[in-house]
């Protein structure tokens, strides 16, 4: 994932900064407790596509 893209991407729900987890291919929003998938290098920034984070992931 391009570092410049990570600098401008924010959570579509709350507009918070996102944390990229390369091993899981996900962008995490800790305030919303959501994980957005990254497929083939493309972040899927749809709330319907996000999965809820478990308490141990936050």
The biggest beta sheet reads: 5 strands, antiparallel
Radius of gyration: 10 Å
The pLDDT mean sits at 94
Per the CATH scheme, the topology name is N-terminal domain of TfIIb
- Low-confidence runs of at least 5 consecutive residues: none
Distance from first to last alpha carbon: 21 Å
* Total number of distinct structural domains: 1
What structural class should be given to the helix and strand makeup? mainly beta
Shape: globular
Strand content: 25-35%
Q: Give me the count of strands.
A: 5
CATH-scheme architecture: Single Sheet
Order of helices and strands: HEEEEE
Structure description:
- With 58 residues, this protein is mostly beta strands.
- It has one domain (3-57): N-terminal domain of TfIIb.
- Helices cover 10% and strands 29% of the residues.
- It has 1 helix and 5 strands.
- Strands 1, 2, 3, 4 and 5 form a 5-stranded antiparallel β-sheet that branches.
- The mean pLDDT is 94.
Brief overview:
It holds the Pfam family Trm112p. The protein is mainly beta.
Summarize the helices and strands and which ones pair or pack.
Blueprint: H1 3-8, E1 19-21, E2 26-29, E3 34-39, E4 42-43, E5 51-52
Antiparallel strand pairs: 1-2, 2-3, 3-4, 3-5
Protein name: UPF0434 protein AW08_00512
Pfam families: Trm112p
Organism: Candidatus Accumulibacter adjunctus
Summary keywords:
N-terminal domain of TfIIb, 5-stranded antiparallel β-sheet, mainly beta, 5 strands, 58 residues
């Amino acid at each position: 994932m391009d570092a410049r893209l990570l600098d401008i991407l924010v959570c579509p729900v709350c507009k918070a900064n996102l944390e990229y987890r390369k091993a899981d291919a996900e962008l995490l929003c800790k305030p919303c407790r959501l994980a957005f998938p990254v497929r083939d290098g493309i972040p899927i920034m749809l709330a319907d596509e996000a999965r809820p984070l478990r308490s141990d992931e936050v």
